[in-house]
Structure formats: structure tokens, C-alpha cells
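Key result, reporting period 2: structure in, sequence out.
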């Protein structure tokens, strides 16, 4: 009787281990959007809005990079709340890029992240396309000073990667 009891106990224990392993793997989120982070992502506080003089300096640095590369772009600076502070348009830049540059800056400021992340995430997380006032295209970069968002820069007129290079050149001026 004892060997039968031991064998039944071993079978039951093996079955319970297998079942708990199955349950653990079944509980793992299949969708990356279902992962619950420990900390709030992109939790940068909003700071004092960028001043016009500083916005002009950021725009000048960005457009100097575009000019050096012979790219015709438009760049816009928003405050931390997404409202435009300043914009510059290079000669012969495409007119549609005015609104796109403004939108990129607004999205980067309001969502406290680079617009590139929306571009990269939309394929795996289509719900990103349902968020209000988002543009999923590179070239929008938050402007962070002393750990706080003071605004954002948005550039448009080239490819997404060209827009991003120029926006980063401007954003590098803010520390």
C-alpha cells in the first residue's frame, strides 16, 4: 500500500508542478501593451516654458545643421503644453511641412517623448493611432532643461531621419 501511495503522491506532485508552470506561462502577457511597468514611463515634470530668446537659439542651431547638409526644412518650437512659441521656414521648404513641424513639436511636448517612439510603436501597438493629437513620425523632440520639459522642437521637410537629425541638433542646445 505504501509504494502505491508514494507513487500517487509523486504523480500528483508532478502534475501540480506541470499545471503551475502552464498557469504561469498562460499569465504572461502576450501583448507588450499588457505589460505593467513598475514606474510611470516618460514621467518628466513640466517646467517653466521656454523663452522666445532661447527658442530662437534652438531654431538657429537646428537650421544651421539643415543648411550645412543642404536640406530645406521647417522647424517649430512649442512650450511644454504644445503651444507654438516660434517657427522658422527655410527658403523653398515644402509648405505642408509648416503644419507637420508644429504638430511634431506639440506631440513631443504633450506626450513627453520623441515622436519617433510613436512611429516605431504603431506597428506593434495599433492603439497608438487612436490617441488624440499624435503624429507618428520622427522629428519631434522634447526640450529638457534641468530634468524638466520646457518645450519641444518639431522639424519637417525631409525624410523622418533627416528631420530627426536636425531636431536633435537644436535640442542639444538645451541642457
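The corresponding designed sequence is given below.
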Amino acid at each position: 500500500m505504501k509504494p502505491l501511495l508514494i507513487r500517487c503522491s509523486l504523480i500528483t506532485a508532478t502534475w501540480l508542478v506541470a499545471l503551475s508552470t502552464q498557469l504561469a506561462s498562460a499569465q504572461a502577457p502576450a501583448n507588450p501593451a499588457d505589460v505593467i511597468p513598475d514606474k510611470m514611463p516618460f514621467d518628466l515634470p513640466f517646467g517653466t516654458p521656454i523663452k522666445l530668446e532661447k527658442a530662437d537659439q534652438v531654431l538657429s542651431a537646428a537650421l544651421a545643421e539643415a543648411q550645412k547638409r543642404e536640406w530645406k526644412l521647417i522647424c517649430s518650437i512649442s512650450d511644454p503644453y504644445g503651444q507654438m512659441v516660434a517657427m522658422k521656414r527655410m527658403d523653398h521648404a515644402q509648405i505642408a511641412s509648416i503644419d507637420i513641424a508644429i504638430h511634431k513639436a506639440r506631440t513631443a511636448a504633450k506626450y513627453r517623448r520623441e515622436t519617433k517612439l510613436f512611429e516605431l510603436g504603431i506597428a506593434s501597438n495599433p492603439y497608438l493611432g487612436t490617441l488624440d493629437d499624435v503624429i507618428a513620425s520622427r522629428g519631434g523632440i522634447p526640450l529638457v532643461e534641468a530634468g524638466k520639459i520646457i518645450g519641444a522642437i518639431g522639424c519637417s521637410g525631409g525624410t523622418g531621419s533627416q528631420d530627426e537629425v536636425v531636431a536633435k541638433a537644436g535640442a542639444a542646445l538645451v541642457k
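The chain is about 45% helix and 15% strand. The chain has a mean pLDDT of 87. This case is discussed further under Risks and Mitigation.
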